[in-house]
C-alpha cells in the first residue's frame, strides 16, 4: 500500500472521515475515474498518477451537504480552487480533510497538460496530510497566452471569432468548473436576458467573455473547462489573460492567499487610474 | 449603415460612432445635465443610460453593448472619495480594468471603452470627454470593420 492509500484507510477506519473522494483504476476501460471510498472498501484501488486529471473540489459542495467529514485527494491546482471556495465561504474548512500528494503533472488526451508547465506549485496549498516533496516555481510563464499575445489585434479577433463560432453552448465548461456555483447562472437568467440562448456569433461571444470574466481573480487554472470543451475552444487562454491582468494590476495570484479577500472584492481606493487606460 | 450588407460587401465605416454612456446617478448624470443646461456644444453620439452608481456597471453590460453594435462604451462615475455609497466607483475601476484587458485579449481595441470621473459640477469636462471620445472612435475604423465582418456586431 502506498502512503496515500494507508492514510485514507486509517482515516476511514478511525471514522475521522465518512468518505474519501479519490480516483479508482477501472480495468475494463483502462482509465481512472473519481470515486467515493467508504469504510470497508478496498483502498488498494485508490490511485493517484498522471491520469488523475479531474478537479475533485467540484464535488465537495454536494458531498459536505451529505456527510459530516469528507476526505479528498487534491492536486496543487485543485487545492487552489479549494482556497478560493473557502475564502468565498462556499465550504467550511472543518468539514474537509485534504490528502495532498505531490503531483508530477497530468496527461490530457495522451499528452502532458499545458497547465502543468505553468503550474506554480505541485502540492495543494491547503493540506492536512502531505505526501511527497513540495516544489514551487516563482513565476508562471503563461506559455499558451504568449502565442495569442503575439498576434495583431485584428488577427486575435479573427482567431477568437472563429473559435467562438464553434461553441455549441453545451455549458460543459460551466458544469465542470468548481467556481461556477451560482444557483441561477446568468446564462439561464430569463429577465433580463443578458446572454441569448441561440447559437450565433454574438451570443457565443457574450457567453464566453462572461464566463471568463466571472472567473476574474478566482480561477485557479485547473484547466478543466478546456478539457471538458467538446469543441476544443482555447478557454484556458481567456482565463489566463485575466489571471495575468489581475496579477499585473493587483499583484494577486488566485488561490494562493487563504487569509485574504479576492482582488475584485477588495476595497481599492489607491489603485492607479492607469489601470483604466488613462486620459483621452 | 450598420452591419455587413446582404451581398457580402465589406461594410462601410460608420461616419458617426454610436456610444453607450453609463453615467452614475449622483455625479456624472448631473454633470451631463449641467453640460446641457449650460448650452455646451458636444457631439450627440453618446446615448446615456443612468445607473445608480458606477459600481453598478457590470462588465456584462459592456460586452452586451459591443455585441449589440455599439462602437464604444463610456462609463463615468464620481471622483474617488466622492462616491455617494463610499467606494462603488473604486470597485468599478477594478472590475472595468479587468474587463478591458479581456476585450484586448480577444482583439477588441480596449480604447473603445473609456472610464472616467465627472462630478456634478463638471459640465464642461463631460462635454470635452464626449467630444474627445467620439473623435477617438472615428480613428478606430479598422477594428470596427473586423467586428462587423465576424459577427460580433450582429
Summarize the structure in words.
With 280 residues, chain A is of the alpha/beta class. Helix content of chain A is 34%, strand content 12%. In chain A, strand 1 and strand 2 form a beta hairpin. The model of chain A has no long low-confidence stretch (mean pLDDT 91). Chain B has a single domain, classed as Rossmann fold (3-Layer(aba) Sandwich). Helix content of chain B is 41%, strand content 15%. Chain B has helices at residues 28-37, 59-67, 88-105, 123-138, 141-150; strands at 19-24, 46-51, 72-77, 113-117. In chain B, strand 1 (19-24), helix 1 and strand 2 form a beta-alpha-beta unit. Mean pLDDT of chain B is 84; it is low at 1-13. The chains are: A alpha/beta (280), B alpha/beta (154). The interface between A and B is large, with 50 and 47 residues.
Give the structure's gist in a few sentences.
With 280 residues, chain A is of the alpha/beta class.
Task: Please write out the topology.
The complex is a heterodimer of chains A (280) and B (154).
Chain A: H1 3-13, E1 19-26, E2 31-37, E3 46-47, H2 60-66, E4 70-73, H3 76-87, E5 96-101, E6 107-108, E7 111-112, H4 114-118, E8 129-131, H5 143-149, H6 153-166, H7 172-175, H8 201-213, H9 224-228, H10 235-250
Parallel strand pairs in A: 1-4, 4-5, 5-8
Antiparallel strand pairs in A: 1-2, 1-3, 6-7
Helix pairs in contact in A: 8-10
Chain B: E1 19-24, H1 28-37, E2 46-51, H2 59-67, E3 72-77, H3 88-105, E4 113-117, H4 123-138, H5 141-150
Parallel strand pairs in B: 1-2, 1-3, 3-4
Helix pairs in contact in B: 1-4
Amino acid at each position: 500500500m502506498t502512503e496515500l492509500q494507508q492514510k485514507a484507510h486509517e482515516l476511514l477506519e478511525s471514522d475521522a472521515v465518512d468518505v474519501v473522494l479519490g480516483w479508482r483504476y477501472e480495468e475494463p476501460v483502462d482509465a481512472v475515474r473519481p470515486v467515493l471510498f467508504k469504510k470497508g472498501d478496498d483502498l488498494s484501488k485508490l490511485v493517484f498518477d498522471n491520469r488523475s486529471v479531474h478537479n475533485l473540489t467540484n464535488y465537495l459542495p454536494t458531498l459536505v451537504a451529505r456527510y459530516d467529514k469528507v476526505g479528498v485527494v487534491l492536486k496543487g491546482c485543485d487545492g487552489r480552487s479549494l482556497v478560493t471556495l473557502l475564502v468565498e465561504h462556499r465550504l467550511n474548512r472543518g468539514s474537509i480533510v485534504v490528502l495532498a500528494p505531490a503531483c508530477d503533472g497530468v496527461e490530457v488526451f495522451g499528452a502532458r497538460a499545458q497547465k502543468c508547465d505553468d503550474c506554480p506549485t505541485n502540492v495543494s496549498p491547503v493540506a492536512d496530510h502531505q505526501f511527497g516533496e513540495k516544489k514551487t516555481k516563482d513565476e508562471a510563464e503563461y506559455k499558451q497566452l504568449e502565442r495569442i499575445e503575439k498576434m495583431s489585434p485584428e488577427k486575435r479577433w479573427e482567431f477568437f471569432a472563429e473559435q467562438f463560432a464553434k461553441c455549441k453552448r453545451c455549458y460543459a465548461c460551466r458544469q465542470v468548473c468548481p467556481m461556477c456555483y451560482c444557483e441561477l447562472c446568468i446564462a439561464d437568467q430569463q429577465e433580463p436576458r443578458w446572454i441569448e440562448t441561440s447559437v450565433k456569433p454574438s451570443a457565443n461571444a457574450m457567453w464566453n467573455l462572461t464566463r471568463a470574466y466571472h472567473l476574474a481573480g478566482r480561477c485557479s487554472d485547473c484547466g478543466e473547462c478546456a478539457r471538458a470543451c467538446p469543441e476544443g475552444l482555447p478557454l484556458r487562454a481567456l482565463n489566463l489573460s485575466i489571471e495575468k491582468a489581475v496579477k499585473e494590476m493587483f499583484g494577486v495570484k488566485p488561490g494562493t492567499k487563504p487569509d485574504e479577500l479576492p482582488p475584485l472584492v477588495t476595497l481599492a481606493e489607491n489603485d492607479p487610474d492607469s489601470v483604466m487606460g488613462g486620459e483621452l | 449603415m450598420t452591419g455587413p450588407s446582404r451581398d457580402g460587401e465589406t461594410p462601410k465605416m460608420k461616419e458617426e460612432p454610436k456610444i453607450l454612456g453609463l453615467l452614475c446617478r449622483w455625479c456624472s448624470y448631473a454633470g451631463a445635465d449641467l453640460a446641457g443646461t449650460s448650452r455646451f456644444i458636444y457631439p450627440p453620439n453618446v446615448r446615456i443610460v443612468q445607473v445608480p452608481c458606477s459600481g453598478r456597471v457590470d462588465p456584462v453590460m459592456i460586452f452586451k453593448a459591443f455585441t449589440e453594435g455599439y462602437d464604444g462604451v463610456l462609463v463615468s462615475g464620481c471622483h474617488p472619495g466622492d462616491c455617494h455609497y463610499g467606494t462603488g466607483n473604486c470597485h468599478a475601476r477594478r472590475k472595468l480594468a479587468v474587463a478591458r484587458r479581456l476585450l484586448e485579449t480577444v482583439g477588441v481595441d480596449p480604447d473603445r471603452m473609456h472610464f472616467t470621473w465627472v462630478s456634478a459640477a463638471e459640465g464642461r469636462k463631460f462635454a470635452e470627454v464626449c467630444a474627445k471620445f467620439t473623435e477617438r472612435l472615428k480613428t478606430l475604423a479598422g477594428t470596427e470593420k473586423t467586428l462587423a465582418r465576424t459577427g460580433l456586431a450582429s
